[in-house]
Amino acid sequence: LAPSLGAAALLGTGLPAAPAARAAVAPPADLIPTLGIGAWAWGDTLFWGYDAKRDGELQELFDYCLASGFKFFDTAEVYGLGRSETLLGQFCRANPAAADVRIATKFAALPWRTKASDVLDAAQRSTERLGRPIDLYQIHFPNAWANEAYWDGLGQCVDRGLVRAAGVSNYGSSALRACSASLASRGVRLVSNQIQLSLLYPYAQTNGLLSTCNELGVKVLAYSPIALGLLAGKYTKEKLPSGPRQLIAGKYLDDPQFGELIRTMGAVGAGHGGASPAQVAIAWCIAKGTCPIPGARTLAQAKSNLAAASIRLTAAEVSELDTAAAAVTPVLAPGSSPFAKKDVVTGQIMFDS
């Protein structure tokens, strides 16, 4: 999601200089797994009601993921204004098994950040909060200007060994091609594009973005695969989520076809050992060839999410889910996104879904 302008306190200027240049390290072939863990809720109070008193449970959740063989975590400098990165760093230091954890984080392309050095400085700050190098560094979202400067900064981060791999997030097909070409000109591969993708937000599969990613060899990280928790099937008109999600959930629950989608997901799950709608939602993203990164705030949620990695939906089941989802009246759509659609300086189209 786009950060609030309150992030200025954390993400302003005057950051320490980037480290001296050193040889770039090629990203490991298995950097991006079948399923990762999103850490947006670890520190975010607006959407997810973060409470520092529950940090112990988050540590337990983290330890469980590692013990279960899931070691890819996605965060960002704006999540909790750095709190998510700080927690991940603490959890890694407290667990001896965290030596091979893979951490992806993101640079916030805020309007006042206009130089390649801003990307380098932000990456340095992130490594300080994490207490370790960054495995995958992503431009979090397009800006209305300075995008080419960000790509330069991203390439420099890799060149200097500050990060192991370069990615973007919320980029459309045209921007993805331009960024990939820019990085390739300096010998850096664009590894990933993190985008919103779920049964309630399937636009990347219909507008060609997934095809572009596949063509370029760019792996898709699917965020909000459970659609902000709405596809878990646990909400009713009498029991709505809190915060900004309440209005969104209310609109979906007013649509009878949303209920039909949840029932279809339950029926599909019944054929996979009684998998829950949330697990089916995650498995659908895997079936589309992406790496979903569902968030988890409790150990129970983590266990449920990780179990979805073993579900293999048939082509017929995927088609059935697609049909049920297509009947739901859209509430979330690209047109309402806060991301810059176009670079006003270069004319480059930046966002489409």
Task: Explain how this protein is built.
The N terminus is likely disordered. 39% of the residues lie in helices and 9% in strands. The chain is an alpha/beta fold and 353 residues long. Strand 3, helix 4 and strand 4 form a beta-alpha-beta unit. The radius of gyration is 19 Å and the shape is globular.
For the report, how would you describe the main beta sheet?
8 strands, parallel
Rough outline: globular
Number of discrete helical segments: 13
Structural class: alpha/beta
| Total number of beta strands | 8
Overall mean confidence score, pLDDT: 92
Rounded Rg: 19 Å
Q: Provide the spatial order of strands within the biggest beta sheet.
A: 1-2-3-4-5-6-7-8
Quaternary organisation of the protein chains = single chain
- How much helicity do the residues have? 25-40%
Explain the layout of strands and helices:
Blueprint: H1 8-11, E1 37-38, H2 55-67, E2 72-74, H3 83-94, E3 102-107, H4 116-130, E4 136-139, H5 147-159, E5 166-169, H6 173-184, E6 190-196, H7 203-206, H8 209-216, E7 219-223, H9 245-253, H10 256-270, H11 277-287, E8 291-292, H12 299-307, H13 315-326
Parallel strand pairs: 1-2, 2-3, 3-4, 4-5, 5-6, 6-7, 7-8
Helix pairs in contact: 2-12, 4-5, 6-8, 10-11, 10-13
Report a brief summary of the structure:
With 353 residues, the protein is α/β, with parallel strands linked by helices. Helix content is 39%, strand content 9%. Strands 1-2-3-4-5-6-7-8 form an 8-stranded parallel β-sheet.
